[in-house]
Automatic annotation (TrEMBL):
<dbReference type="InterPro" id="IPR023753">
    <property type="entry name" value="FAD/NAD-binding_dom"/>
</dbReference>
<feature type="disulfide bond" description="Redox-active">
    <location>
        <begin position="41"/>
        <end position="46"/>
    </location>
</feature>
<feature type="binding site">
    <location>
        <begin position="171"/>
        <end position="178"/>
    </location>
    <ligand>
        <name>NAD(+)</name>
    </ligand>
</feature>
<comment type="similarity">
    <text>Belongs to the class-I pyridine nucleotide-disulfide oxidoreductase family.</text>
</comment>
<dbReference type="InterPro" id="IPR016156">
    <property type="entry name" value="FAD/NAD-linked_Rdtase_dimer_sf"/>
</dbReference>
<protein>
    <submittedName>
        <fullName>NAD(P)/FAD-dependent oxidoreductase</fullName>
    </submittedName>
</protein>
<feature type="binding site">
    <location>
        <position position="297"/>
    </location>
    <ligand>
        <name>FAD</name>
    </ligand>
</feature>
<dbReference type="InterPro" id="IPR001100">
    <property type="entry name" value="Pyr_nuc-diS_OxRdtase"/>
</dbReference>
<keyword id="KW-0285">Flavoprotein</keyword>
<keyword id="KW-0274">FAD</keyword>
<keyword id="KW-0547">Nucleotide-binding</keyword>
<dbReference type="GO" id="GO:0000166">
    <property type="term" value="F:nucleotide binding"/>
</dbReference>
<dbReference type="Pfam" id="PF07992">
    <property type="entry name" value="Pyr_redox_2"/>
</dbReference>
<keyword id="KW-0520">NAD</keyword>
<dbReference type="GO" id="GO:0016491">
    <property type="term" value="F:oxidoreductase activity"/>
</dbReference>
<dbReference type="InterPro" id="IPR004099">
    <property type="entry name" value="Pyr_nucl-diS_OxRdtase_dimer"/>
</dbReference>
<feature type="binding site">
    <location>
        <position position="257"/>
    </location>
    <ligand>
        <name>NAD(+)</name>
    </ligand>
</feature>
Length: 434
């Protein structure tokens, strides 16, 4: 039986980061992956999505400047864009695995199962380790309804060889909004169906509704309070059925959430407790078996399931295993972004001693590109320090990072006025927001 200092299950961003950290510190490390090396984000998640959105953003800018430098605005050519995306994704899996091998990490392909608290089996071989790190991520969940076999996932969307004329997306979270934004820019007729009337429930309601309005203005059709009951296939098309509701389209994407990849690991044999959200951990990222850690999307915490979070947790767990820290993990502020059209971003608290909510559409930052809507909400505490923010604009992703730093540094308006930022930019507007 081969013995390692640490075995890591899952070669996504978090698993790879932990493997490199531990290996560079002299540990004998094994890394196990049963699918694509590199994980969801670079293969079929945030990175390729961002590549697809690059063309959408360019088209949006042209639309906003129509009659102001542009006349004809074409739809995005999906086939060309998909080929461009593949230049980023195709090398990822092989490159990620080879990089690990070059770093002296033992790589194992296969689906692991725990056989005891210190042993794991892969491809009929058994391995032992002093510590394990579970970094298996999540996968799309599907509605348990008749016809669910006809539903495609966000992964399938990313690999479509051609965009259908009509597409329906079930769900109204991050993924649904982003896929709707991309499909709409290709000229597809896009419908978004949601079981209640509260899209993007993690975000400020006013701002989420404004994003809905902006997408509706672009032609996306939203259907709220529709509880999907059945999918029927007939004559090459799919019909979504609900009470007093029917919608036929060429393709239906299920974007109703994601579930943790824990069910195939036989975690009960390792004394690792889970719930429906994933592996239950303490403030040191340890499971109920203190030699087995969990990081990233597979963890049952309220922390946003984002790539930078898994990397941060990987760094912490590596330091803990190496004996370089015994402190609890201290998660910094985590900004979140919906890459829609426009973008919606949020960080920190949403209530405080004072809330300043501004429509900044007329400000030069946004009017010089003729953006149809731009809004910024800043939340202050009783010491006039920034403690939260929400941004809706084309620049929301970069703006939320500036606001995150302002919150972390407990900045007041007086503090902000001491800074000189490049002008004219969204960042240079910071002092006028509160």
């Amino acid at each position: 039986m081969e013995k390692f200092d640490t075995i890591i299950i899952g070669a996504g961003p978090g698993g790879l980061a932990a493997a490199y950290d531990l290996s560079e510190s002299g540990q004998n490390v094994a890394l196990i992956e049963n699918n694509l090396w590199g994980g969801t984000c670079p293969n079929r998640g945030c990175d390729p999505k961002k590549v697809l959105l690059s063309a959408v953003e360019a088209r949006d800018r042209m639309i906003q400047l129509k009659g102001k430098g542009f006349s004809d605005v074409p739809y995005v050519n999906w086939e060309e864009l998909e080929r461009f995306k593949e230049t980023f994704t195709d090398p990822v899996s092989e490159g990620s695995k080879n990089g690990a091998i070059d770093a002296g990490i033992t790589t194992i392909d296969g689906s692991p199962k725990f056989v005891s608290e210190k042993e794991i089996s892969v491809n009929e071989a058994t391995y032992q380790a002093d510590h394990f790190i579970i970094a298996t991520g999540q996968r799309p969940s599907y509605l348990n309804i008749p016809g669910k076999e006809y539903l495609l996932s966000s992964t399938d969307f990313m690999s479509l060889k051609e965009m259908p004329k009509t597409i329906t997306i079930i769900g109204a979270g991050y993924i649904a909004f982003e896929l709707a934004t991309i499909a709409n820019a290709t000229g597809a007729e896009v419908h978004v169906v949601h079981h209640n009337d509260r899209p993007l429930k993690a975000f400020n309601e006013k701002y989420a509704k404004e994003l809905v309005q902006q997408l509706e203005n672009k032609g996306v059709k939203f259907h709220f309070n529709v509880d999907t009951q059945e999918i029927i296939k007939s004559a090459g098309q799919l019909t979504l059925k609900a009470d007093d509701f029917s919608l036929t389209s060429d393709l239906i994407i299920g974007a109703t959430g994601r579930i943790p990849n824990v069910d195939i690991l036989d975690l009960d044999k390792a004394n690792v407790q889970t719930d429906r959200h994933g592996v239950i951990v303490n403030e040191k990222m340890q499971s109920s078996n203190d030699k087995i850690f969990a990081i990233g999307d597979v963890v049952s915490t309220k922390t946003p399931k984002l790539t930078p979070v898994s990397g941060f947790e990987a760094d912490y767990v590596s330091q803990f295993i190496l004996g370089k820290t015994t402190d609890d993990i201290k998660m910094p502020l985590v900004p979140t972004v919906v890459y829609g059209s426009p973008k919606l971003a949020q960080v920190g608290e949403q209530t405080g001693a004072k809330v300043i909510d501004q429509d900044v559409t007329s400000w030069f930052t946004y009017s010089h590109t003729n953006q149809p809507k731009a809004m910024i909400r800043v939340v202050l505490n009783d010491q006039s320090q920034i403690i939260g923010a929400t941004v809706l604009s084309n620049e929301a992703d970069s703006m939320i990072n500036l606001l995150t730093k302002a919150i972390e540094q407990k900045m007041t308006h007086a503090d902000v006025k001491k800074e000189i930022l490049a002008y004219p930019t969204a960042g240079s507007d910071l002092e006028y927001l509160f």
